[in-house]
């Protein structure tokens, strides 16, 4: 009985932290509720799916967050770009390359995927953005000073 109580409190605490994070960073409800499926033309990729593709030459990850956020943490191998430059970048890419757009919560990346599908047919956005990616202990690059106490 005691173990079940501890487990229940742990789950409730984790849920409270997650909801607090969502409310604090404004990732709710757009990124959580509206991201239940594919966008109108683009589709999403889950953090688990993306983590399996990291390092592949067939996938290019573009992070559209501000450079200050990108330097704090980003998907391994991601390229930080201004979203205004994406049409030009994508028009020069082969459609055989899978393009993944990353933002903080998935909202801006989803919007960009909808807009940019005319420039590149194989475009996806990261479901939940870096907020969801970082909760899953995926490959995140952080500056050394953040790793060492």
Instruction: Tell me which CATH architecture applies here.
Output: 3-Layer(aba) Sandwich
CATH topology: Oxidized Rhodanese, domain 1
- SSE string, helices as H and strands as E: HHEHEHEEHEHEHEH
The proportion of residues forming helix, as a percent range, comes to 40-55%
Q: What would you call the shape? A: elongated
Radius of gyration, CA atoms, in whole angstroms? 17 Å
Structural class: alpha/beta
CATH superfamily caption: Rhodanese-like domain
Distance, first to last CA: 38 Å
Mean pLDDT: 77
Q: Ranges with pLDDT <50 over ≥5 residues?
A: 28-41, 144-149
Structure description:
Helix content is 46%, strand content 15%. The chain has 149 residues and is of the alpha/beta class. The chain has a single domain, classed as Oxidized Rhodanese, domain 1 (3-Layer(aba) Sandwich), CATH 3.40.250. Helix 6 links the parallel strand 5 and strand 6. The chain is elongated and about 60 Å long. The C terminus is likely disordered.
């Amino acid at each position: 009985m005691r173990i079940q109580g501890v487990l229940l409190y742990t789950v409730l605490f984790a849920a409270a932290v997650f909801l607090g994070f969502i409310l604090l960073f404004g990732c709710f409800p757009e990124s959580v509720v509206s991201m239940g499926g594919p966008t109108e033309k683009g589709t999403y990729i889950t953090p688990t799916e993306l983590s399996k593709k990291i390092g592949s030459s067939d996938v290019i990850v573009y992070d559209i967050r501000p450079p200050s956020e990108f330097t704090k943490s980003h998907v391994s191998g991601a390229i930080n770009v201004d979203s205004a430059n994406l049409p030009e970048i994508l028009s020069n890419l082969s459609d055989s390359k899978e393009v993944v757009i990353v933002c903080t919560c998935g909202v801006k990346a989803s919007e960009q995927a909808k807009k940019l599908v005319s420039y590149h047919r194989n475009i996806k956005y990261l479901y939940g953005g870096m907020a969801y990616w970082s909760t899953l202990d995926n490959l995140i690059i952080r500056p050394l000073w953040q790793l060492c106490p």
